[in-house]
Design brief:
The chain is mainly α. It has one domain (3-20, 57-310). It has 18 helices and 2 strands. Helix 1 (3-22) packs antiparallel against helix 6 and helix 5 packs across helix 6 (129-145). The longest helix is centred in the first third of the chain and has 25 residues, at 58-82. It starts with a helix and ends with a helix.
C-alpha cells in the first residue's frame, strides 16, 4: 500500500475515534408505553407517516462509514493509479445504487454540514458519530488527493454524471459567477441552522433536488426541480455540483492543499487540447487540470491520445499483432 494511502487510513481511524469521543450519546426513553392511536384521539386525527428511512442497527451505521471510506479509496486508486474512466463509471453506478437508492440519500456529507454546525453552537444538540465521520472523511481525502468523493462516490454527482450527453462550454466569467452561488447557499444554510431550535431550518436537506428520486416520494415541486437539474445536466455538466452544492465549496478549498490529483499525461504532454474539449466541467486550464474544480470524472484520461483508454487499447492490439 502506498505511503499516502497508509497515512490516509491512519487519519480516517483517528477521526473515527475522535468522533466516538465527541459524540453526545443521549439515551432515549419513550414517555409512554404505547402511543395513542388515531381512533382514541378522535377529531379526524391521522397518524403521521412512519419515519423514513427507518432507524437501523449501530453496526449497519458503522458498515456505511466503512463502505464510504472504501469507495473513496477505490476512487483515488482508479483515478490516480489506474487512470480508468470505465472503472470509475462502474464505481459511480455502484455508489448511486447503494448510497443513493438503497440508503435513500442518508449517507450525505452535504446535509451533515448543518448537523455539525448546530452541534458546535448548541451543546444540547446531539450529533451521531456517523454524521461526524461522514462529514469529515471526504474533506480529509480532498486534502490529500482532491475531490475523490465527487468523482465516484457521491450519488448526487453520479446521477448527474450519467446523464451528460453533449455538454456545452459555459463562458468562463459566467461559470465563475455561478460558482459563487454555492457559497451563498452555504452561508444561508449555516444561518438557518444556527437559529433557535423552534425556528431552526435545515435548508440543504429540505431542498435536496435528488433525494425524492432516491426515496420514490417527495413534494412535487422538488421532484420537478430535480428533473430540471437532470435535463439541464444533459447539456451543462453537473449544474448542481458546480453551482449550488455547499459541500462542494468546502471540498474545493480543501483540494487546494492536495499534493496528488488528476494529472494529464504528466511525462509526455502533447498539449493537443483534446482533454480540454473532453472536460464538461471547465476544470482544465491551459491543458492542465485545476484541482479545486476537478470532479474526478476521468474523461480527460479517456480522450488522451498518449495514455488514454483508447490509446492503451491500440497499443495492446499492436502488441498482439507484433507477437504474432
Amino acid at each position: 500500500m502506498p505511503r499516502a494511502l497508509r497515512a490516509l487510513s491512519v487519519v480516517v481511524l483517528l477521526l473515527a475515534a475522535a468522533a466516538a469521543l465527541c459524540a453526545q450519546a443521549i439515551e432515549y426513553s419513550r414517555p409512554v408505553e404505547t402511543a395513542p392511536q388515531q381512533e382514541t384521539i378522535g377529531g379526524g386525527y391521522k397518524t403521521p407517516a412512519v419515519q423514513k428511512p427507518l432507524p437501523r442497527g449501530w453496526w449497519l451505521d458503522i458498515l456505511d462509514v466503512v463502505l464510504l471510506c472504501a469507495a473513496m479509496g477505490a476512487s483515488v486508486w482508479i483515478v490516480i493509479k489506474r487512470r480508468k474512466r470505465r472503472w470509475l463509471v462502474g464505481l459511480s453506478i455502484a455508489s448511486l445504487a447503494y448510497f443513493g437508492f438503497y440508503r435513500e440519500g442518508c449517507i450525505c456529507p452535504i446535509g451533515s454540514i448543518q448537523n455539525v454546525v448546530v452541534a458546535l453552537a448548541d451543546p444540547k444538540y446531539s450529533i451521531p458519530m456517523v454524521a461526524i465521520a461522514v462529514f469529515f472523511m471526504p474533506l480529509v481525502v480532498a486534502v490529500f488527493f482532491g475531490r475523490a468523493f465527487c468523482g465516484g462516490v457521491c450519488p448526487l454527482g453520479a446521477m448527474q454524471e450519467l446523464v451528460v450527453i453533449k455538454p456545452l462550454r459555459v463562458p468562463k466569467r459566467l461559470d465563475q459567477g455561478l460558482g459563487l452561488l454555492k457559497y451563498v447557499y452555504l452561508a444561508l444554510a449555516i444561518l438557518f441552522a444556527l437559529k433557535p431550535a423552534l425556528t431552526r431550518d435545515f435548508l440543504i436537506c429540505r431542498f435536496d433536488p435528488f433525494v425524492g428520486f432516491f426515496r420514490f416520494t417527495g413534494a412535487p415541486y422538488m421532484l420537478a426541480t430535480g428533473g430540471v437539474f437532470l435535463i439541464g445536466g444533459m447539456f451543462i455538466g453537473r449544474p448542481y455540483c458546480r453551482y449550488l452544492c455547499p459541500y462542494g465549496g468546502l471540498l474545493s478549498w480543501c483540494s487546494r492543499l492536495a499534493r496528488k490529483g488528476v494529472t494529464i499525461t504528466p511525462d509526455k504532454e502533447l498539449d493537443c487540447g483534446l482533454c480540454t474539449e473532453a472536460c464538461p466541467y471547465g476544470a482544465i486550464d491551459q491543458m492542465r487540470a485545476v484541482g479545486r474544480k476537478c470532479l474526478y470524472c476521468a474523461r480527460c484520461y479517456a480522450s488522451c491520445p498518449c495514455d488514454g483508454e483508447l490509446a492503451q487499447a491500440k497499443k495492446a492490439l499492436v502488441g498482439i499483432g507484433g507477437a504474432q
